[in-house]
């Protein structure tokens, strides 16, 4: 058997191919390393954002529970978080942050409204209470005048003395307690301080103002 001569590969061509493949492999490894580092950074940032929104939601839940207790309302029911149809984690986190901002704004609005009474919230406590007592006194005065108008003694040109105790004591007392009850029910803030019923001002308006109006009415009808 005759040995066949082996033709050697050109040294320059083989080395060039080897170096070309080496450069390509190095570039692929570099790109893969950069991609892995980018994915790792994205994952760490995403996890940090998830931890931040989770902590914020926990603080919101505690704040809502405390707000419900201070406002004397039932404790809010906060259910679990259902998975949403958003495939992009960054978009889901953005929407979660926007929803948390909206929840904070709603809670702040509820807190601000609860710090003011439902009745005439734009007035100071003294002005609001004075208006309530004045309205009750006007109704009481109207009732007193109506009682005098329908009394048989009035037709006889006489003062119905049996109605005087009601006009000077009974109706002013009813007007005072009606104003006091109205202020207690709808004139007090749910939370915070500053709630007052201005009992002294109400006493002056009802027990002094109503008799003065009654005497003015009697004097005008007898004058």
Automatic annotation (TrEMBL):
<feature type="transmembrane region" description="Helical">
    <location>
        <begin position="130"/>
        <end position="151"/>
    </location>
</feature>
<keyword id="KW-0812">Transmembrane</keyword>
<keyword id="KW-1133">Transmembrane helix</keyword>
<feature type="transmembrane region" description="Helical">
    <location>
        <begin position="199"/>
        <end position="219"/>
    </location>
</feature>
<keyword id="KW-0472">Membrane</keyword>
<feature type="transmembrane region" description="Helical">
    <location>
        <begin position="163"/>
        <end position="187"/>
    </location>
</feature>
<protein>
    <submittedName>
        <fullName>Uncharacterized protein</fullName>
    </submittedName>
</protein>
């Amino acid at each position: 058997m005759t040995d066949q001569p082996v033709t050697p590969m050109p040294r320059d061509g083989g080395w060039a191919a080897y170096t070309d493949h080496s450069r390509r492999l190095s570039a692929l490894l570099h790109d893969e390393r950069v991609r892995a580092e980018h994915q790792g950074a994205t994952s760490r940032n995403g996890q940090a954002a998830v931890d931040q929104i989770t902590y914020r939601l926990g603080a919101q839940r505690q704040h809502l529970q405390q707000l419900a207790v201070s406002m004397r309302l039932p404790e809010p029911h906060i259910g679990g978080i259902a998975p949403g149809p958003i495939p992009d984690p960054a978009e889901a986190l953005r929407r979660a942050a926007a929803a948390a901002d909206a929840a904070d704004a709603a809670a702040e609005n509820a807190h601000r409204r609860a710090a003011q009474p439902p009745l005439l919230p734009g007035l100071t406590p003294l002005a609001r209470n004075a208006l309530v007592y004045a309205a009750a006194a006007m109704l009481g005065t109207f009732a007193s005048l109506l009682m005098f108008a329908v009394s048989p003694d009035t037709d006889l040109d006489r003062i119905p003395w049996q109605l005087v105790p009601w006009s000077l004591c009974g109706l002013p007392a009813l007007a005072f307690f009606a104003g006091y009850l109205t202020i207690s029910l709808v004139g007090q803030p749910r939370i915070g301080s500053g709630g007052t019923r201005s009992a002294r001002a109400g006493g002056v308006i009802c027990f002094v103002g109503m008799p003065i109006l009654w005497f003015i009415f009697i004097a005008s009808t007898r004058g």
